[in-house]
Structures are given as C-alpha cells and as structure tokens.
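okkk here we go again. third time trying to get the fe (ii) ion bound version out, last two times i messed up the smiles copy paste (missing a bracket lol). double checked this time i swear
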Amino acid sequence: MPFRYYFYYALGKCKKTLIIGFQLFHKMRIAFAFLMNSILLGIAYFSVLGLTSLIARIAQKKFLDTRILKDNHTYWTNIELQDKSLESFQRMF
Amino acid sequence: MYILGISCYFHDASAALLKDGVIVAAAEEERFTRKKHDASFPMHAINYCLQSQNITVHDLTYIGFYEKPLLKFERLLSQHLHAFPWSFKTFLQSMPSWLHEKLNITRAIRKQLKYSGDILFIEHHLAHAASAFLLSPFKKAAIVTIDGVGSWTTTSYGIGNETKIHLMKVLPFPHSLGLLYSTLTAYLGFDVNDGEYKVMGLSAYGLSDKNKNIFYEKLKNAIDIKDDGSYHLDMSYFQYHYSDRMPSQKLCKLLGGPARNTDERITQRHKDIAAAAQMITEDVVMKILHHLHTSTECEAVVLGGGVALNSVCNGKILKKNLFKKIWIPPAPGDSGASIGAAAYIYHSILGHRRVSSLRHAFLGPGYSRKAIKNLLEKQRITFREFKNVRELVNHVATLIYKDNVVGWFQGRMEIGPRALGNRSILANPCNPHMKTLLNHRVKHRESFRPFAPAVCMEDASHYFHSDSPLPPSTDFMAFVYPAQKKWRGKIPAVLHVDGSGRLQSVRREYNPLFYNLIRSFENISGFPLLLNTSFNVSGEPLVCSPSDALQCFQRTKIDYLIIDRFLIGKKDNLYKRKHV
Ligand SMILES: [Fe+2]
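finally!!
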C-alpha cells in the first residue's frame, strides 16, 4: 500500500482536530490582532490625547462649546468665508 | 456628462448617477445586501447605477462624496478630547474603522472601482442642501437642513438661487435636534436611526397640550431655544458625545425613571414623553422657519436632512403657512446625500443650468417582463399572466376590496425610506380590522404605528384637509394631513389615532399603473384610495428584486403577489413552499 494512503488515512482521522486547531489558531490570531490594536490605540489615547487635553485644560481651551447662554439672543454661528474653488472640493477637509 | 454621487460609512449608504443634470439612477446599498441601513461601501448600488446606463467608471467625469471625512474626523477627535478620559471606550470602538476604512475613502474608491478621475468632497450639510434645493421646482428658495450630525454642523440655513447655494448660519455639534430626538428614541426603547418613526407614531397617543404634558416642560430644561430657532442643548443631560449609551442618568432622572427596555410594556408616560419630544422638535423647526421667512423674504422653502423625514412636523409646517411653497425630496436623509453631492458638482461647482426637478422617486432597479417570467418558471411558481393593464388592475382592485393583502411589485424601485407604489403592500383602507390583520399577518410591527393612504391626486383634498394646494412633495408621503371629519369613520385603516394620515398623492403622469389601480378600486368601493405600506417585513429593507419579493411573499401571509403582469396566489403555491 502506498505511503500516500497512510497519510490520507491519518489526515482523515485528524481532520476534525486539525480544523478545530486551525479555527482556534485563527481566533487567537484575531484576538491577538485585536489586543495589539487595543494596546496601540490605548497608548495613543492616553499619551497623545491625554497630553493634548491636559495642555488644553491648562490653556482653558474647549474642544466643544457646551455653554448655555441665557442672556444671548442667538446661538447661530456664521460660516467662515467659504472657499468654493474646485481645489477646495478636492480636499478631504 | 456623468457624475456619480456616493454616501457611505455612517448609515444608509447609497449611490446616485447624474446624467447631464438629470438623476437617472439612485439606490440604497441596503436594498441589494439585504442588511437594513447598511453603511458599507455601496458597491452594489454603484454597479447598478453604472449598468442602468450601460457605462463604466471610465465614463464618469467626477465622483462626489457626501462629506469631508477629515472634518468629521476632527470633530470626532474633539469629542474624545473634550470628554477625556471618559471617551476611552468609544475611542477604542470607533478608531479601527476610521483608520482602516473611513479615512481611506479615496483609496477605496480608486481601488474598488478602478477609478482614476477626480473625486470631490462636498460638506455634509451642503450635500443635504443641494439634494433638497437643486432638484426642487424652485429657482430661488430658503434652505433648512437639520439632521443628527454631519461633520460639525447639525443644523443650517441659507438661500439657494438658480445654481448657487449659500449656507449662511449653522449650529455646531454637540447641539443637535436630530440627536435629541434619537436620544429620546433610545430612552423609549427603540433603535436609534430606525426607531424615530416609532416615536413619531407614538407621539399621537401622548398629551399634546403643552400646558398639561409635564414632560414637555421638563424637556425644556435640557434645551435652550432662542426666538430665532437657534438652540443649545444642556449637555449634562446627554452623553452621545462621548458614550455609546444615549440617555444619561440625569436625563432618566429628569424624565422620572429608567429608559424603557425593548420588551417592556408601553405606558401613557412613554406616550407623553414621545409627544413632548415631538413638540420640542416642532417648536425648534417652526422658530427656524419663522426666522428664515422674515430674514430672507423667500416665498419658497426646501428642507433637507434626516429631521425632514418627520412628516408630522412637516404637516404642522404646512398648516402654519409661513412659506407659500415647500419642497421636501423623497430621500432627505443621508441616503439622498449622494444625489446632493452629484447635483452640487454639476450645477454649483461646474455652473450648469438646472434642467429638471425630481418629480418621482422611481430611480432604483427595474426588471424586464421576460426576466420575471423566467424566474417564476424556474421556481415552478403557479401564476396567471394578464394580457392587458385594465384586466390586471380590475382584478387586483377586486382582490383588495375583498380584504386580501396584496404585494405589488412594479417598475423601478423607490429611493428613500417610503414605498410609493412600486414596492408596496396594498390593502383595503375601509376595513376597520385591516391594521390588526396586516400587523398580524405580514408586518409584525408595533400596533401604534399607522399605515398610509395613497390617494389619487385630484381627490386628495376631498378626503384630507389642507389650507393651501397640496405641495408636490405630498407625492413622497412627506406630510401628515388631518382627514376631513366626514370621512374619518369610512377609511379607518389609513388613519392614525388623531384622525390624521401620512398622505401620498398619486399622479397619473408619474405612476399611471398605480393610479389606474386606485381608480379601479374607486369604481368598486367608492373610495379613490388604498392602504399603502412598504413591501418588506419588520427589520428588513424594502424588497428590491423579484426574488426578494417572492421570498417575502413566501415567508409572510400576503394573499397575492403581483409582479409586473403576473399574479401569484398564496393558495396556488402553498405546497411548493419547501421546494422553492
Ligand atoms: Fe445627514
């Protein structure tokens, strides 16, 4: 009997185990990637955003205007001078 | 010249194709992928748009995107910075999709479409404004756009004149009328970006007297509205700017209890809160329009953004009669922003004259009679083919009159959230039990939500009350009208608890088949109107293809399905269900 037969026989027997193993590996890879992503994002959040927000707090700069101005008569704000050239629309900002 | 508009990555992704200033195709991605409110890159919708004109991406002169992604990203970072460190969880949740997908939109377009031409980014509210104004019937009009949030803007107003749009004033995030409504939607136990209709439906059951509804007074603590309609929210009541949970503890305390669970019973308190949310929304919109009317002296107004889908509020606007003319497009929300982006490029950037207004919403895919017949034969469906239209409409009208629930699939699919007679489920409006029957058999939706009447244009004001002639946007179910008192008992299935209906006027010139069907129904019943609800089951998007329609037909207790000229009866096909 050729060797190939034994190989496929063994493979058939182990197929289920192999599939489970591979799925587990795949899940671990995803979990690992997710973990790495989260760690990197966590570092970015607490270093870059943390520092920026600290500086902003010292400089008393607000990122969102959440004031309620009972005495003012309007909240409407003007749109800054609008650039309507073709180039301005090619930009993502 | 072809211009493709794209909107995606938030909710309701869509694509639209403009040919020499005329919208020739537009569709939401959800209709193809069958995932409701699908936000993914609208590859299917784009393919459909291109195929409908037999063109390829190389024929496109421009692609327009419905927002400026970096502005939106800046707003997002500002939110996280503002709430540091409480925004950590949402930062972790939102950043991967931004870094992998949303900031790479240019690459996605180039790679997925193999497109090398110009891509233009139109600010979100400008796209809303363009979608509302540039395809409206008006040469000059005041423009109001209100939604949850675009990049920074949540509310804006301005003027449109010929091909130019000038947005003058804005309200920036986090102050958002749309998000206030969404927060209360979440509080009432419904899904955000989907359940807002339910709140609107529920509001009719609540106390509409501002002096008696205690929640109206309470909610006014959470919003400061100025006489000119501008407003700021007291953000201590909200947390959508840094958290994925919408109602805050403080808001729950204000409203006297925790948020409602999805399966919890709806009480009068919930109904009153819904009514209060609706009244606050109407207060703001009315004040904005009043301010706009006095400051611009325009006689026409167009509305854009998701809040313009609030047909109850729109009905109140009509009643107020501030502007002589009003226009609301069939898809004022984000799914219509792709149309806006394309139209803005063609008219406002390139300066081409406006050629036509959007007078119907049938811009989606249509299917040939031959293809439909092949499908039915392949699936071994028993059907009857009608030789002419008159025979078809007479037969179907009789079926509806005999209280059958009928799936009606004709021509091209509608753009926008409402079925307008091409992908509709139709039923007898005169049967007082029809609402329960439909909910029980097909729609499985909340009993408090009303069904809409589709009425022949000429007869609409005979059955529904309006001080002025019905605006053309009534064709898109944009407004709720009170029914004339004498008819209220006669058409109970299409009226809400307060005797109002989200009327669709049907015109012969834009949908002759549907019009003739209603007329045939009139010949039998004496009423030129039908109950029209979207052809789908709860939780799924509107059906798009004949096979979607067949699947929906097989899974529900719809009695008859009509696709083009083919009539399919449930009883004739029952035994085949498992084989199909
Ligand atoms: Fe929007």
